[in-house]
Design a protein that fits this description.
heterodimer; A: 556 residues; two-stranded antiparallel ribbon; 25 helices; 3% strand; B: 526 residues; alpha/beta; Immunoglobulin-like; nine-stranded mixed sheet; four-stranded antiparallel sheet; 23% strand
Chain lengths: 556, 526
């Protein structure tokens, strides 16, 4: 197997792809990009800054685009790497005083479903109102990397705590995060670390820690030997991890010395035959855990695996030999040389020639969070910020269901590997789009633009104010500017002349361009005249509905 | 001769006027259109329904070896099903008490239970093992296309170009839900279509795809999205019409949203009844990754294993009943599968960890009723790593369904499954079934001796002739040696298992002669 083939793709555990490469358009090999992690020195204009915002955040709002206009690339990246202040605790949305006590109170089984909905609503709100920062997109990345689901964990206080952990370390140190996740009560429950005891190990976490969370699974070069580690390494790691359980009272881990296997743990040649000396008390067990993570993270394969995963989250799924060599390897080098601090790696990626290579613009299929949150962020929806907290909750709760129907069920992943779009050969990001989910995606934007997106309990409906769009356009009386500047706001690449004409035909069926100018100026003269407003608003809504339903809008 | 075969054999020759569906077609040479027409003129109206159990179903608590109950009970005392609760399928074999529906179907001769299905070197990763099952690859082979995608590509060449057409107006394969299976991937497209509600297709308009997409990665993704959009436009009407035309008739279906699998299978029954020519349906139920508290739920196992099995059983029974009432029973065969079984020994969390082979259920009126294969051997003192070795390769099951149910020719099987696999007696009224029944009585596997053995053991067996494969598996279900893999004359034979270089422990020998396999055991001590 040649190097190109080897790195063409990796499975959830990092397995290599076959030489066969799926393609629906005929170019089987994909398109080579030779640029690497070296600093980008090309033009720094609107196209580049919008590309950066779209990938680093959920959608690029006009306001944010304007904010970064005139800043240098490094200034914008600095801004994105600011984690921002710690958000407040998730409130009880049905409590007039917005009490947050539930998240630290005793477990309440009858209310736990509501608490999950509060947590997800609170999280959606943070994403909707994100500052110019990578934090929320990285929080979601970690959630999709270190998966736990509420149906298994069955305690929303745990789920909240885990989400806060991801946010706290979103732009921090991977080694520390991996340690905290290992001790995280939600994870202890989700992967049965809490039943992993001396003499009766439960291998579940030890397996996924290596297969999915850190070093990745390589090809099975002999029975039970997955290149990077072996089945025996899973057993040895499971023994290191014995003794922990979750403490529902304190919402934290609990260590029971008698459950910890104090014997020595011998690892395979894949880990250099490392022996972790067994110890018997909590600090000793913790030292064993540190040694285990040092051992796994000390392998080059771990840094490469994490960087490929970041790459597929922020750039594209296809990793060919050139990308492996010019982008992934230097990213991994940076991760190692910075002792697993993530920020320097992200800084390099978002400042690199590769990231701004035209071949990497517009090639990401938006995940449902990007589509739903990103679309809502483009426009102003007063119904999402009502006076009453419970009304706000109804709105946010609806969003969660919409995203789940499109197969991004937050805290409800299909399995521990996370969303298939980031690992499933050969389709990767295409996994988001099928006949079922595409209908749901287009219905979502149609509802927002024209038909009305109904919020829970029927309390309100989201509808884009089409007039708001005109405020994003330099000269909204000019049909061509209206169309092209809206397209630039919505699509990652420019539309063709034919598409321009088709959009115009929706805006102005069979009429000359100046008719738009006339109607628009009429409305401008009398902005309070409802009938004049409706005349242009109806046209703008039809145009938006059409444009948001174009396949181009699914790309970022 | 089938019309398809006729075309395939004669079409390249030359001018050949013929009629399909009332339209005269002049065939000059092979063209994609002609291929499509030829292929879709297949005279089968048979349907295959795959029921995927995600997470790795615990086969030993699904189909229970009553003949080794004490070993079974000792190996998993914290999760063993009480002996008096187990529903008997035979004196030796029982089924989980929550599977009364499947038991009833078994008694009605509508179930073929295939024991210990797996592959020679088990992989314990959900994702890798799922890929192996869906792509039908060897354990060390990485393939991007699925077994059904390759099959459908053989049957409907050129897809999606030229489809739908008069001969194939409907989706080739349908998955109920919001994901589409890797099993349906081909090297040109996914051959299937996913939807959750066939009656409410959303009319999507993204019809600005007239200009070709840019020649770039972004263009490639754009093309894909446009293609899915077109698929919705093209197939929405026939699917909706089919769904609206039919009504479920079985009273055994639970209320909507009580049983995720029953809901999906009810849709499948409607679509078949409504007249879709779709050949393959895929449905799913998850939650089988029962690492802890598997009989009670909780702690990582959201739904107890018994509840899941009950849902499977109720759903399959209702579906079969519905097909009977709809007059479709003879056209449909279904099959359950899961990425792996679980360990023989339970863990201390009252759950089971990732394992190897497990039984699967093929159902319908056209299956050869009964149990295929022997119960797995449960050792007296299994280690936590002991697994059920495979008795039947899952690809032999695929091959049997493709050949005996869909009538796929051998040349096609080779392209779809990459190797020759024995055809198992699963489908009624086929020569494969008859042949296997005949030969199964003719091969015997004797007891190995000495047993326990120190370094070598002799394994006697007899055959009535034909190809013999005799393989050895270790206690974790991994193939460690193939002692014989060739044609042998009829009569008594003996193989020698040299275990001098192998660790001590329990080994299984698997003798395969055509569709028949026998299992034995050798213990190596020093």
């Amino acid at each position: 197997m040649n190097r190109r083939t080897f790195f063409a793709g990796v499975g959830p555990g990092g397995e290599p792809a076959s030489p066969l490469h799926h393609s629906s358009s005929g170019n089987a090999a994909g398109y080579r990009v030779s640029s690497g992690l070296e600093p980008y020195t090309g033009p720094w204009g609107r196209q580049q800054s919008v590309h950066l915002l779209r990938r680093a955040m959920f959608g690029a709002r006009k306001q944010d685009i304007d904010t970064v206009q005139g800043m240098t690339l490094s200034t914008v990246v600095d801004l994105l790497l600011q984690p921002g202040p710690t958000p407040p605790l998730p409130p009880d949305y049905n409590d007039a005083n917005a009490s947050t006590a539930w998240s630290t109170a005793a477990y309440n089984s009858s209310r736990d479903g509501a608490y999950l909905a509060y947590t997800l609503s609170w999280w959606s709100d943070l994403m909707l109102n994100q500052a110019i920062s990578l934090r929320e997109k990285m929080t979601l990345f970690w959630h999709n990397h270190f998966v736990s689901t509420w149906t298994s964990v069955k305690d929303s206080r745990y789920m909240y705590r885990q989400n806060a952990l991801f946010r706290q370390h979103a732009l921090g140190n991977f080694k520390e995060l991996a340690k905290q996740v290992t001790l995280d009560p939600a994870m202890l429950r989700y992967l049965n670390g809490n039943t992993n005891k001396k003499g009766t190990p439960n291998e579940n976490y030890a397996r996924e820690l290596q297969e999915l969370f850190t070093i990745g699974k390589g090809p099975e070069i002999s029975p039970g030997n997955y290149t990077n580690y072996t089945e025996d390494d899973i057993k040895a790691a499971a023994r290191v991890l014995t003794g922990y359980s979750d403490d529902a009272g304190g919402i934290k881990y609990k260590f029971t010395a008698s459950n910890h296997d104090g014997g020595n743990k011998v690892f395979s040649a894949n880990y250099g035959g490392k022996v972790i000396t067994g110890r018997n008390n909590e600090s000793g067990a913790m030292a064993e855990l540190d040694e285990l993570l040092e051992m796994i993270l000390g392998q080059e394969a771990t840094s490469l695996y994490i960087c490929r995963k970041l790459y597929r989250w922020f750039v594209y799924y296809q990793i060919d030999a050139a990308t492996e060599q010019n982008v992934i390897a230097p990213m991994a080098q940076l991760l190692r040389s910075n002792n697993f601090d993530v920020a320097p790696v992200l800084r390099a990626l978002f400042s690199s020639a590769h990231f701004y290579d035209v071949a990497n613009i517009g090639c990401m299929i938006k995940n449902p969070v990007d589509l739903v949150i990103g679309t809502l962020r483009l426009f102003t929806f007063p119904a999402l910020n009502p006076d009453k907290l419970n009304f706000k909750y109804f709105g946010l709760r609806t969003l969660r269901r919409t995203m789940a129907a499109m197969q991004a069920d937050l805290m409800g992943h299909p399995n521990v590997a996370g969303w298939p779009a980031y690992w499933q050969e050969p389709v990767f990001h295409k996994a988001w789009i099928n006949a079922d989910t595409l209908q749901k995606r287009v219905k979502f934007t149609n509802d927002l633009a024209a038909d009305g997106y109904k919020l829970d309990e029927g309390y309100d409906t989201l509808l884009i104010d089409p007039i708001e769009v005109s405020t994003f356009i330099s000269d909204p009386s000019d049909v061509s500017k209206l169309i092209d500047e809206t397209a630039a706001l919505l699509f990652p690449f420019s539309i063709t002349p034919r598409q321009h004409d088709q959009i115009k035909a929706v805006l102005l069926p069979g009429l000359p361009d100046y008719e738009w100018t006339v109607e628009w100026e009429d409305y401008q003269k009398e902005p309070t005249n409802e009938s004049k407003k409706k005349a242009v608003a109806g046209k703008l809504a039809a145009m938006l509905k059409f444009m948001l339903a174009m396949a181009e809008y699914q790309l970022s | 001769m089938k019309r398809r075969d006729f075309l395939k054999r004669t079409a390249p020759a030359a001018l050949l006027p013929f009629t399909i569906g009332g339209f005269g077609v002049k065939a000059y040479a092979r063209t994609p259109l002609l291929d499509a027409l030829a292929a879709s003129a297949i005279d089968t109206d048979r349907v295959l329904v795959l029921v995927q159990l995600n997470g790795g179903n615990d086969g030993l608590n699904t189909v229970i070896p009553l003949d080794q109950y004490s070993n079974y009970n000792a190996a998993r005392s914290n999760i063993a099903i009480a002996e008096n609760q187990i529903l008997k399928l035979s004196d030796a074999t029982g089924i989980h008490p929550q599977m009364a529906g499947v038991k009833a179907m078994f008694d009605q001769q509508k179930v073929r239970l295939v024991q210990s299905v797996g592959y020679p070197t088990p992989d314990y990763s959900h994702f890798r093992s799922t890929d192996i099952w869906l792509t039908a690859s060897d354990y060390d082979q990485y393939i991007n296309t699925g077994w059904l995608g390759r099959y459908l590509q053989q049957e409907f060449p050129g897809f999606p170009t030229g489809y739908p057409n008069a001969q194939m107006p409907d989706p080739l394969a349908i998955q109920i839900g919001s994901t589409i299976s890797t099993a349906l991937e081909s090297d040109v497209a996914n051959m299937g279509m996913a939807f959750s509600d066939p009656t409410s297709f959303y009319n999507i308009v993204n019809g600005t795809g007239n200009d070709p997409a840019p020649d770039s990665n972004a263009g490639r993704e754009l093309d894909y999205i446009r293609q899915v959009g077109q698929q919705i436009q093209l197939f929405a009407t026939p699917v909706r019409n089919a769904a609206n035309k039919a009504t479920n008739k079985s009273k055994l279906y639970p209320a909507a949203r009580q049983n995720v699998l029953a809901d999906q299978l009810a849709i499948v029954a409607k679509l078949i009844s409504g007249g879709l020519k779709t050949r393959i349906y895929i449905v799913n139920i998850g939650g089988f990754d029962t690492h802890a508290n598997q009989n009670n739920g909780g702690n990582g196992t959201p739904v107890p294993h018994g509840t899941l099995l009950n849902q499977v059983s109720v759903a399959i029974q209702a579906f079969q009943d519905d097909l009977r009432l709809l007059g479709l029973e003879d056209r449909v065969v279904g099959m359950t599968f899961s990425e792996f079984g679980r360990r023989i020994k339970s863990n201390s969390s009252a759950g089971t960890d990732h394992g190897a082979a497990a039984p699967l259920i093929v159902f319908g009126t056209n299956v050869i009723p009964g149990i295929l294969g022997a119960n797995p051997i449960i050792p007296a003192n299994p280690t936590p790593n002991d697994n059920v070795p495979m008795q039947f390769d899952f690809r032999a099951v695929y091959a049997s369904l493709l050949k005996d149910w869909f009538g796929a020719p051998d040349s096609e099987l080779q392209k779809v499954l990459f190797h020759n696999f024995p055809i198992l007696p699963i489908i009624k009224g086929t020569s494969s079934g008859v042949e296997a029944e005949r030969s199964s009585s003719a091969i015997t596997l004797g007891a190995a001796y000495p047993n326990p053995a120190h370094s070598t053991a002799r394994i006697p067996f007899s055959t009535s002739g034909g190809h013999i494969q005799l393989s050895m598996f270790d206690n974790e279900g991994r193939r460690v040696a193939t002692l014989i893999d060739r044609t042998l004359p009829a009569g008594d034979h003996e193989a020698i298992f040299d275990a001098a270089e192998l660790p001590t422990g329990t080994y299984y020998c698997r003798l395969q002669n055509g569709a028949t396999s026998k299992m034995g055991q050798v213990v190596v001590v020093r």
